[in-house]
Amino acid sequence: MSSTDAQQPISICGLTKRYGPLTALNNLNLDVGHGEVLGFLGLNGAGKTTTIRLLLDLLRPTSGKVFIFGHDCWAESLAARARIGYLPGELGLYPDLTGLEVLDFLAGLNRQPVDKRHRQQLCDRLELPPPDLRRRLREYSTGMKRKLGLVQAFQADPPLLILDEPTEGLDPLMQESIYELLADVKRRGRTVFMSSHVLSEVERVCDRIALLRQGELVLLSGVQESRRLAPRRVRVIFTEDVSADAQLPPGHERVEATPRQWRLNVAGPLGPLLGVLAGLPVKDLEVQEGRLEDVVLKYYREGKP
Amino acid sequence: MTGPFLLLQLSLKRARMLLLATGLLLAAFQMLLVVIAGSIQGEFEQLASLLPDAVRSLLGPSLASVMSFGGIVCLGYFHPGIVSGLLALTIALATLPASEVETGFADLILARPLARHWIITRTIVLVLLAVSLMLAVMMAGTWSGLVMFASPKAPWPSLRIVGSLALNLGLLLLCWGGIATAFGAACRRGVAGATTGLLALAAFLLDYAGRLWPPAEKFAWLSPFRYFVPFDLVMGSPLPVENLVVLWAVAMTGFVVAYLVFSQRDISH
Question: Which residue from A53, B61, B96, B120 could staple onto A58, CB 3.0 to 4.6 Å apart?
């Protein structure tokens, strides 16, 4: 690892992008560490793609700075981009080129030569056999184009991968392959910055999430910690009929109450609930951990948990 | 240097069929003109009398030169249809950056360690190569036509005249290539192409009006077509260096503007 590669893979300081009166991104501060997989979340128009395009020097910021492995994204743009593998949300590929021509062309634009064996392994993993690579892109399905996009992003084995919705358009088996691939690059110390709308995917592959809402960072947290922000779902089954009038502690929400069963959302510790249930004829108690989805959706709607 | 070279190679590869087809058509047209000129040998004056008055007054003293064997052979270098076609080809190539931004291809290129200015440099080289190739093919067509179809006794146009016409036409195309590159660096391809095309049409009409209507003459210097003087060249006049300088300067200004605009703009589609 060179001295520059020892620097933080991504360091964003006060990044703002305005289009006239519209603020697409407002004062974003974010660091991404080595070997980390960061899920970048937000509704459409929240500023995810704007951030990614700013990291790649495709957009110029209104204010703020971004450093990629210590290189200023604009003053030392080439050095920064030499360390990035990028998968765009929409692949702008010429339909008259073959898959192999695209991969060779994009590999040639890198500073380091691409290891053909590594590329072959990627193609095997993503089920892009040589006959498919020799076909023109106009004959490719959406999924095949996505796979080709992934190969071009990973083929130079860059230390930082920026992926805009990597599994969009892929079937469940291929999604599984991508998750394994991401786990593999993470094991090898690569950093991944990925945007996604698939929360189960984020929950599975990401270490941390950064959530944007209307151009502002409203949540930056580990996936496990974020999940803890969600209320647990509790189902209580009684042996005899009970009244639904029992007073619940603060942070407890009764979602459904029948004489023999309650469904509750519990934010915080379960101890106070157990105190309430102690005097009741409880037959069974089911507790489901909070889901990341519940937290994220709440942030999407309200900007807070 | 590998990256920019690959970019140029890819662009040439993608444009090769268009260039090949256009080149073949131009060469064939040049040869056809030689055949036509040979077939109306001795009847040029009669043919000139059939021309509309507006065209006769536009041609002025060059009428006799244009309506001659050499004039007809050289017609391809200033025929409005050919010039329009070559302008369209030049504009299409010069607005390639706009197309690459729109399709998202620029995202993939510029996410790599490739400086933005190479996209404009590639475009300029592509325009230069395409224009040079088209003119070379036209000249080859003229020469081949003369060798194959013209009588050795016919008054062949001199190499100097054909060369001057090709050079003047080449710089006119480069001038519009520069303007189109500037628009292509800033706008969407459709807007860039349409704007350059309309500007070219307006400039052509301004020059035409300036030749026929004295009040328009005051503004005709603004038109790049004013510096394209095929009728004078056919008459044997030397190609004015200042005309070449003006066309070259406009082209260079367009290219510089393109570099500046493209280096500053947001790449978004």
Answer: A53
Helix (H, G, I), strand (E, B) or coil at B36: helix
CA–CA dist A277, A285 (Å, integer): 10
CA distance A49 to A297: 19
The string of pLDDT tens digits covering residues A197-227 is 888 899 899 999 999 999 999 999 998 888 8
Determine if residue B93 is left, alpha or beta; phi over 0 gives left, psi from -120 to 50 gives alpha, anything else beta.
alpha
Angstrom distances, CA of residue B160 to CA of A90, B38, B168, B217, B235: 53, 21, 12, 29, 12
Contact B113 A81 (CB under 8 A): yes
Q: Output the CA–CA distances (angstroms, integers) from residue A188 to A35, A114, A163, B132, in the order listed.
A: 8, 17, 17, 51
Q: What is the DSSP string of B61-77?
A: GGHHHHTSHHHHHTGGG
Task: Name the phi and psi angles at B213, rounded to 5.
Answer: -130, 105
Smallest CA–CA separation between B267 and chain A, in Å?
Answer: 5
* Percent of chain A's residues with pLDDT above 70: 97
Q: Indicate the angle between helix axes B159-186 and B80-94, nearest 10 degrees.
A: 40
Domain A10-227 falls under CATH 3.40.50.300? yes
The ipTM (two decimal places) reads 0.85
DSSP code, position A74: T
Domain ranges of chain A: 10-227, 231-289
Question: Residue B207: which of B197, B221, B186, B191 has the closest Cα?
Answer: B221
pTM of the model: 0.88
Q: Quote the DSSP letter at residue A136.
A: B
The lowest-confidence range among A134-138, A189-193, B153-157, B257-261 is B153-157
Question: Hey, is A194 helix, strand or coil?
Answer: strand
Q: Which of A109, A110, A114 to mutate to test the interface with B (most CBs of B within 10 A)?
A: A109
Look at strands A208-213 and A191-195 and give their pairing.
unpaired
Nearest to B225 by CA among B247, B255, B245, B241: B247
What's the angle, vertex CA B105, arms to CA B172 and CA A53, rounded to 5? 115
Give residue ranges of A with CB < 8 Å to any B CB. Answer: 53, 56-60, 77-79, 81-82, 84, 86, 88, 90-94, 96, 105-106, 108-111, 152, 162
The neighbouring-strand residues paired with A252 are: A266
Minimal C-alpha gap between A50 and chain B (Å)? 9
Contact A285, A279 (CB under 8 A): no
Query: Tens digit of pLDDT for each residue in B166-186?
Result: 999 999 999 999 999 999 999
Helices vs. strands in chain A: H and E counts, helices first: 11, 14
